[in-house]
Structure formats: structure tokens, C-alpha cells
Structure prediction request, 295 residues.
Amino acid sequence: METRIYVDGEITPAEQACVPVTDHGFLFGDSVYEVFWWHRGALIQQREHLERLESSAARLYMEVQFTREALVDAMQATVRAAGATVDDDAYVRLVVTRGSGPLGLDFRQVPRRGLIIVAAPANRPSAEMVERGLHMAFIDRLRMSARALDPSAKTGNYLNNVLALHEARLAGADDAIMLNAAGEVTEATTANVYVIRAGALVTPPLDAGILRGTTRTRILGLCAEAGIEAVAQTLRPDDLRTADEVFVSSSVKGLMPVTSIDGVPVGDGAMGPVTRAIRGRFEAAAAAEAAAQRA
Ligand SMILES: Cc1ncc(COP(=O)(O)O)c(C=O)c1O
Prediction:
């Protein structure tokens, strides 16, 4: 498959896709988006992503202006144009921008939302990458406060995360674990964070200032089914440093073990048994969902 991009009704190869410079999404990051994992012919956790898109938009005083059906049809058309087969895993990014209008911050004169969809081959981690796990770093930069720009809204304003990732890379790590102003663990730059201690799972609560990950929601449900105790509770850096296992989750990459933090191994420095078990259940749940969606 090859990358195809939908912009306001037209699907083209990536290099031909253009958005107007006057779009407030381009000018101010004034947009909302979702990234879907297209797997075995289905958009995984479609409803959860569409609900979150609407809730992100509401936090920006934005009306989406497209029905869920129209959004799904446009995503399917873009994936088809990209030539994805049922054996491909695709990355599908859906962006609703504020739209074009007068320059200036005031969006009240911007009549129509813009719609952009990117369908590209998914960059899923190989089996070796999963076994190696991620090397994370605590960084100095804080996750922004909900009173400044609520991290529970997935918006085109991602500089907080962009800079955090860069600073983690400068520190020699794969990704950052970000804290809030109270010194509590929030999340990684594009993934939620979990700790396993004595067989039980703990993940930061929503009010730590995190995105409500669709994968996080599914993992909490899968733990309940599997009889694994799982709670959302405040975590501090030492809880991660002394955990038996740590992992992160996001839609396209799924669950990835964290095998070191600030250069120090987590547990014995390899993917732990509880992470492996939940990861297996997650992949199986996605396959079952795809089969049900296609049926
Ligand atoms: C900041 C942040 N947290 C968490 C996630 C994970 O969310 P999901 O599981 O819905 O992909 C993402 C996904 O991109 C993210 O950007």
C-alpha cells in the first residue's frame, strides 16, 4: 500500500496534498485529530475514537460538522485508495481543522471545518523491537496543565509532546515520561503508562492530566475479564523505578514494554509476564473486533 491523503473531498498521493495557509489548524494548531489502527480490514475501536474526537472538539468550542458515518466513509475511501488489503496494517489519521477564515485568533468568523485523512502503512513494532522494549527518560519539561490546554483533548497543538520527545532523544532515550506540576506521572509523549506491582496493574488517573487512551480503556476492560486487579491511581517516578514491570500503550503500536528508565533496568530488564499476557489479550481482542466488524 502507498500513502494517500484526503483533503476536503479529494484523495491524492502525499506529495500533492495541500491545505490552505489560512486554515486555523495550520496557523494555530486549532484542530482535533485521532489516529486509528486499521487492522484486518477494520478500524479498531472506531466508536471510541469518534467519541473522543467529538469530546476533544467540544473542549475547543468546536462543532465537528461531519457525521460519524461521513467520517467513516471518508476514512474507508482513503484506505481503499491507498491500496490496503486485509493483510495490511494501516495508520489512519483523521484531522478536523477549524477551517479557513480571517487571520487572527478569533474563530467566530470561520464558517466551515476542514477534513484531512492520512492513510499510510502502519509503523508497527517488529517482534524484536517488542522484545527489546522501550528505554524511557524522565524529563524536566512538564505535561501541560489542564487549566492551560487540557491534555484530555487530542488537538493539533502538540508542541508540548514534540519537545518532550526531542528532549528524551537528546538524553539517549526512546521516549519521555512526563510529570505534572505536582510531580505525578502523567503519560509518554504519544502513549499511556502502566505499572505492574505484585501482579496488579496501576495507571495514572485521568485527573493527573492525560489523554483518555482508547487502548487504556480496552486494557482496563481486558484486565477485569482476566481477573487482573487494575486501578487508576496516582503514580510517582519512584513507583515506576521500583515496579516489577512498566509498559506503555497506544492504538497503532499496541502495548510496548518499558525495559529501562533513565538507563536503569525495570525489573529484570525484559518484558514481564503480566505485560506479555495483557499484550496477547489485546492483540486477540483487536482480531476479534475486526472479524466482527467485517461480518
Ligand atoms: C498524549 C497521548 N497519550 C496517550 C495516547 C494513546 O491513546 P490511544 O490508545 O487512544 O491511541 C496518545 C495517542 O496518540 C497520545 O498522543
